[in-house]
Amino acid sequence: xxxxxxxxxxxxxxxxxxxxxxxxxxxxxxxxxxxxxxxxxxxxxxxxxxxxxxxxxxxxxxxxxxxxxxxxxxxxxxxxxxxxxxxxxxxxxxxxxxxxxxxxxxxxxxxxxxxxxxxxxxxxxxxxxxxxxxxxxxxxxxxxxxxxxxxxxxxxxxxxxxxxxxxxxxxxxxxxxxxxxxxxxxxxxxxxxxxxxxx
Length: 199
Prior knowledge:
Layout: H1 8-27, H2 34-51, E1 54-57, E2 63-65, H3 70-79, H4 81-98, H5 105-111, H6 113-117, H7 129-151, H8 162-187, H9 190-196
Antiparallel strand pairs: 1-2
Helix pairs in contact: 1-4, 1-5, 2-3, 2-4, 3-4, 7-8
């Protein structure tokens, strides 16, 4: 089923996720300023554009892109976990609208908002660029891995363990994507960029 018909249960779950994020931001006293909203919007737009530049596309989904996660990582490094998670959620919703591949309501959560929300985990290690990026990608991998085992086991070659299949299928594109993002982050003038994003 490759069309945007979302089960009501998935809609409620997505709305619930958004409410939890907003409540979390409220209780952490994180304010969204005009500057931060502009930066989030800009980084989301860049993420969408970079995601269209696919270096390699896996047969059952997942792509190696031109560092499409870098803008989400920049938001997490600049504003921290809360706003990083919110931005990831928003990108997950945009990606769901642009590239829907739906087989089950719960699968929607594990393939769209949750893996991109995990990119906000980089905000936990602002001072450790590669460790924060690795943590974010591990979080994303876990979400896609669970989805692969539970919902895409039928795609595994005959006789292959679904866990091994999901592990190799997801690592095949997430590992190169992680390396590309690390290279781009190393080449970017990060201090200047993050200072420019200050509100």
